[in-house]
Write a structure and sequence with these properties.
43% of the residues lie in helices and 0% in strands. By secondary structure, the chain is mostly helical. The two termini are 30 Å apart.
Length: 159
């Protein structure tokens, strides 16, 4: 809710701090139910059937009843709105065991020189990522895909 307020309220200057229940209630009162993370258009009508038509009413809902009618994710959303943390704050992310440098081409690469040039560039990029990260990868692996394994898309993709 603070994130949304920081993004949508021009007076916030991009920063929103809601230290107490009164400020949290005021922020919820300005929001639509569909603006709450995880609600959207799909859950709004079933919630409205239970007379939950605003973020404030969702906050005041019984989490156990919400889980019975919906799922644990929505129950946790209600509990978070009520001030009960449901996920631990991750202080340190675990070291990655793999490095992926995946690329595709806008058209079929047919020439060996063109393929070698692209492969050299992507291998160099993967090596930079490896050197920047903890540990050393002892067994680099290249997994090429055949053209038949790819699903064409009707529009261009870019990084």
């Amino acid at each position: 809710m603070a994130n949304r307020t920081a993004k949508k309220d021009p007076l916030s200057g991009g920063v929103c701090y809601l230290p107490d229940e009164a400020s949290q209630t005021a922020a919820l009162a300005k929001m639509e139910l569909g603006d709450v993370w995880g609600i959207g258009r799909g859950l709004a009508p079933p919630l409205a059937a239970l007379s939950i038509t605003s973020p404030l009413k969702l906050r005041d809902a019984n989490p156990t009843r919400i889980r019975e009618r919906f799922n644990v994710v929505l129950q946790r959303t209600v509990m978070e709105l009520q001030g009960t943390p449901c996920l631990d704050l991750e202080q340190d992310s675990p070291d990655s065991k793999t490095i992926c440098c995946s690329r595709s081409f806008a058209r079929a690469v047919e020439g060996f020189d063109e393929l070698a040039e692209a492969l050299t560039a992507y291998t160099s990029y993967a090596a930079q990522k490896m050197r920047a990260g903890p540990g050393v990868q002892r067994h680099p692996e290249l997994t090429p895909l055949r053209h038949e394994e790819l699903t064409p898309v009707p529009f261009a993709l870019s990084d």
